Amino acid sequence: MQKNIAFAFWGCLFSLGAFAQSTSIDSILGQVEQNNKELKALAENVKSKRLALKSGNNLPDPQLEAYYLPFGQHDAGDYTEFHINQSFEFPTVYSARRSLIEQQTAQLELEYNTKKQEILAEARDYCLNLIYLNKRLSIESLRTEQAKQVFDQVKELYEKEQIGILEFNRAKVAWMQEQFKIQQIESDKKNLLLLLTNLNGGNEVNFSFDEYVSSLDLATKDSLWRDKQVKDPELVQLKQRETIAQRSLRLAKNKSLPNLTAGFNAQGVSGERFSGIYAGFSVPLWSNLNKVKAARAQVNFQQSFTASIMMQAYASFEKEYENYQIMLARFQQYQSTLSDLNSDELLLQAYQLGEMSFLEYYMELQFYRQAHDAMLNMQYQLYLSQTALLKHQL
User: Fold this and answer.
1) Are 209 and 24 in contact (CB under 8 A)?
2) Rg of the chain over CA atoms, in angstroms?
3) Could you tell me if 318 and 286 are in contact, meaning their C-beta atoms sit under 8 angstroms apart?
4) What is the C-alpha separation between 95 and 100, in angstroms, rounded?
5) What is the domain partition of the chain in residue ranges?
6) d(Cα 385, Cα 320) in Å, to the nearest integer?
7) Least confident segment among 25-34, 53-62, 128-137, 210-219
8) Residue 341 pLDDT level (bands cut at 50, 70, 90)
9) Residue 98, SS3 per DSSP
10) Which residues form a coiled coil (predicted)?
11) Taking a C-beta distance cutoff of 8 angstroms, is the pair 175, 165 a contact?
12) Which CATH class is domain 2-144+186-393?
C-alpha cells in the first residue's frame, strides 16, 4: 500500500514538472515565431503578394480625349470634340475574380504556415536535444564521481602495492573518459543554443530544463489522421489548389461574357454644340478561346493529383505512426526492466568487497550503462518522432 502511494506521489510530481516544462518549450516556440527573421520576411512577402492580388481586380483607367481642329478649308468654324469613357468587364467577372483572389490569399497563408511549422519543429527538436543532453550530463556527472571514487580506491591499493600498474591505469583512463564525455556534452549544448538563438532572431535563449513532456501516448491513428487533414497546411493546400482551380474555371466562364464601355461625348462647330452619352460592348470571340477547356482540365488534374498525394501522405503517416508505436513498446520494455535494477551501486559494492577485479567490475558496469544509454536515446528518438507526427499542431 505504501509503495503504491509513493508511486502515485512521484507520478504527480513528475506530471507537474512535465507540464511546466511543456509550457516553457511552448514559450520558447512563441519567441521563435515572433523573432525569427525568415518568418518576418515571409510575412512581409505574403502581405505584398496579397495586395498585388487585390490590385488585379481593379477597373481599367478611364480614358479622356479632346480634339480641336482649326486647320484646313472650312467656312463653318473650328471643330471641337471632347469625350470621356470607362471600359469594364462584365460585372460578374469581378465577383468571380474576387472569389478567386480570396482563395489565392488563403493559399499564401497556408504557405506561410507551412514554413512556420518547419521552423517551429526545428526549434522544438533543438529543445528536445538540449533536454536529452541535460539528462546525459546529469548521469555522466554521477558516473564521473563514481569513477573518481573508484580511482581513489585503486590508487590507494596501488600505493600499498596490493594491485599492479595495469589496473591502476585502467581506473585512471576510465575516470578520464567520463570527464571527456562531460566536456563533449557541454560543447554540444553550446552549439545547440547557438542554433536556437539563430532561429530566435539572434536573441539569446535561456534553457535549463531536463525533463520531457509527461506522456508519450498518442491519439488513435484515425483521429490523428483526421486532425492532420484539417490542420496540416501541406495537406490543406491540396484541397485549396482544387478550390483555386474551380474558381479559375468559374472566372474563365464569366470572361466569355461581353466587355462593356460607357462614356460621355461632346462635339461643337460654328457655335452649335452636341453632347450625350454612349455605350458599347465587345464580344470576346478570340481572346477567351480554349481558356474554359484549359481551366476545366486543370480542375480535373488537381482532383486526381490531390487523391494521389493524399494516398501517399496517408501511407507515409501510417508507417510513421506504426513505427512510433513499435518503438514506444520497446522503450517501455526497456524502462520496465531497467527501472528495478540498481546495477551501479551493486557492482560498486561487489568491487569494494573484493568480489571482482577492477576489469570485471568495469566490463559489467559498461554493459548496464550501455543498456541505460540506449534507453535514454530511444526516449529522445521517440520525442523527435512525436514532434514529426504532431508538427501540424504547432
Assistant:
1) yes
2) 37
3) no
4) 9
5) 2-144+186-393
6) 8
7) 210-219
8) low
9) helix
10) 25-52
11) no
12) mainly alpha
